[in-house]
Amino acid sequence: MNTHEQLRSEIEKALKRKLCTPKDFDMLRERIYARLHVYVSRTTLMRYWGYIEEGVSPRKGTLDILTQFLGYEDWDAFCKNSSLPKEQQSSPILSRRLSVAKELVCGDRLRLTWQPDRVCDIEYLGKLQFRVTASQNTRLHEGDTFECSLIIEGEPLYLDNLQQGNHHATAYVCGKKSGVFYEYT
Questions:
Q1: Phi, psi at residue 183, to the nearest 5°?
Q2: Distance between CA 144 and CA 134 in Å, rounded?
Q3: Is residue 94 over pLDDT 50?
Q4: How confident is the model at residue 95 (pLDDT cuts 50, 70, 90)?
């Protein structure tokens, strides 16, 4: 597998789906913007996946964005990592993360989802604090507050100092089996 095929494969693995329709490329474009605050056109993505064949090579800037989406510094770092033996390669899964203190500002809202059919909308209050604004099929309720410093997509989410009503603050894990996914709302 060449480096370009590996990049496409790792992105599809991260998204947990193959990219085969224009709607899939719209979804990837939106995820890239949500994570990096950078726009990549749907047409550019479709060309890179071979959905549109125009015989155009991707620009390094596009490759940098796609590898940064996975958590690498840039295309060169991805290529260097890919050239290592499999057992020495770093996993991009641990790099797909949201560092709360660095990337969120007060008032930012996220939607957390995990299996089976769990949905929780949260608002960032500052100082690593969140408030639940809506919840479906979870033990979290509107108005609950908790602390969290890092969200790693596809991994369990650990909440600290979960305050629910008059109960003592506790720790709580979301998505213990399947991991949690997040989107900006």
A1: -140, 145
A2: 10
A3: no
A4: very low
- 67-104 in b/e form (b: 16+ CB < 10 A) is bbbbbbeebeebeebbeeeeeeeeebbebbbbebeeeb
**Contacts within 8 Å (CB) and 24+ apart, 128-131:** 128/100, 128/101
Residue 7: name the closest of 28, 36, 34, 35 by CA: 28
Q: Which SS3 state, helix, strand or coil, does residue 68 take?
A: helix
Q: Taking every pair of C-alpha atoms in the chain, what is the biggest distance, in angstroms?
A: 63
Instruction: Give the residue among 139, 141, 116 at the shortest CA–CA distance from 131.
Output: 141
Tell me how far apart the alpha carbons of residues 84 and 113 are, in angstroms, rounded to a whole number. 34
Hunting for tokens 């047409």 — which residue is that? 43
Structure tokens at 168: 């003592």
% of residues, the chain, pLDDT over 90: 65
Closest to 29 (Cα-Cα) out of 38, 20, 21:
38
Measured between alpha carbons, how far is 124 from 99 in angstroms, rounded to an integer?
A: 12
Q: How many helices (H) and strands (E) does the chain have?
A: 6, 9
